[in-house]
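Loading example: each entry is read as two labelled lines plus one structure line.
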Amino acid sequence: MTPISKLLIRTTLAGVAAFALGMLMDGGSAKAQGLKHYDSNTKQFWEHPPPDWFLGDETEQQKGLNVPANPPTPATEAELNNIISKIKLPPGFKMSVYASNVPTARQMAWGDKGTLFVGSWFGTGSVFAVVDRGGKKEAVTIIKGMTVPTGVAFRDGALYVVDISKIYKYENAEASLEKMPEPKVVYDDMPTYVPHGWKYLVFDKQGRLYVPFGPPCNECLPPTTVSQIRRVYPNGTAEVIALGVRNSVGGDVDPRTGDYWFSENARDWISDDLPSDKLNHITRIGQHFGYPYCHQGDLPDPVFAMGHKCSEFTPPVVNLGPHVAPLGMKFYTGNQFPAEYKNNIFIAEHGSWNRHKYNGGRIMRVTVDAKGKNAKQQVFASGWIEGDRKYLGRPNDVLVAPDGSLLVSDDWAGAIYRISYAK
Amino acid sequence: MTLTMSRPRILLSAAVLFFAALRVAPAAEPDAIKAKIETCFACHGEGGVSQAPDVPSIAGQPSYFTQWQLVFFRNGSLKSELMEPVARELSNDDLRELGAYFQSLPPPPPSAEPDNAPDLTKAGAKLAVERHCNICHAEGFVGQEAAARLAGQREEVLLKALQDYKAGRRTGTGVAAMPEITFGLSEEEMAALAHYLARVPNR
């Protein structure tokens, strides 16, 4: 797509008219620019990336695609009603709005007493508590002023929040919603790189915290402190449990085995249909999942394969599709859905930006055995994308509610939905 | 209009009419929002075109840009003794209406004053290309989505914005953008960019 056509699509009508007028007056001199390329293998790039760092591997084919801007305000009631009316679900399931007015809602976590904690994205920088106010769910800002507190978790009365390079612990959180206590930093041996620095938090039964570290680039030989998954112990020590991971912003512990599974976003700028994003399963400590050498289990990188073969690396459990952007995921451990949903994996797909026709933007259901064999995937909830490139909303996390329904957070519409089942 | 008008002029006139029609269409102003708009104009100038060096023009800004700035003032992440109390009174619906309204206004006309530092303008023009300002701020720096219209903005306002991003007093909406770009800019370079962008004619 040329810069001109991109502009025509992305600017407002008035802007387009102004632009057209400008074209008439200056004879249409807007020049096409050359393809962009950055060397993203330097510390300078990782620490101070150019503003368009994610466009640094531009190709003729994908040129002009850019990350769409989040709406500044959460969806109105009318907009949410429209979304609800558009979402397709299997028979017997229905979706409603659990909470509206939760700007850029990201990862969700339950407090012991039924409070729902919600992280957020750039521009918001807050953590919310969704509480019951006279039968209506209301999102209250309990922490603000962070950069990108996407990940939240809850354990033994304490709320944990990750903001790029620090994990904070807020003791006695549910009793302190009016005024949160000063947090304690429980882990900060983490780089401050902003690109792919947003994270997700998952506790296992033993109280160990799983934390993903994305590379500060699209495709590069990344700093050795990232492209990995770490497990942080309650005493603040940590171990690297997986290597060769690109951008992971979702995972869960298998209730059947205690193994950690995670979603992973593949590199951009190869094509609309390559490579596929992945669902992975860690079966032993230190497995390497291929990045930056090999994508989707069978596609050596055109530049960064560096002599490696895909057979050297741990393949995905299942390829989820190109540019679907799988983020938050959960094993279904509730009792409300039909029995065959038990231990299935729900994955929230945030949807594309680097693709001419957006893919994902839905909730997938993956059925797979505890060893990672016989994986089958099907669309569970869809309809958040209108036409080729318009988002009504962007699901990014799922959470099983105490009553067995499934909550879905949407950082575009700034809302949380509830999907329930009744025979 | 005369019958002897040349073809380009007809096109131009048609474009102006089309343009003018669009300008009028979205500016429906219920009374409640009208009062709020008047409050804005009191400082930002009649029609949203600032008459004070350190006050930004808000006319012709993309709706998302205006809305995000008001969100930042409202939640305290952008500090201003003047704007915070104003923004705190605004609902999400107000933000949307104000954003759409200011977007519909004609952007500031080019500065009538002669360029007192053409070398600075030249340096700024070169920097704007090198730093890819147009990728987010669009061709002609007219702004798009959450990225501001820079063309014709007050020079002091542009310089202060760059300085604030560099000093960490201001954050953007994007995934690493303005703080990153300003990190590599010297005080002289920021002055050149501000000087140049303030003089880019709007279209």
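Chain B touches chain A through 58 residues (CB under 8 Å).
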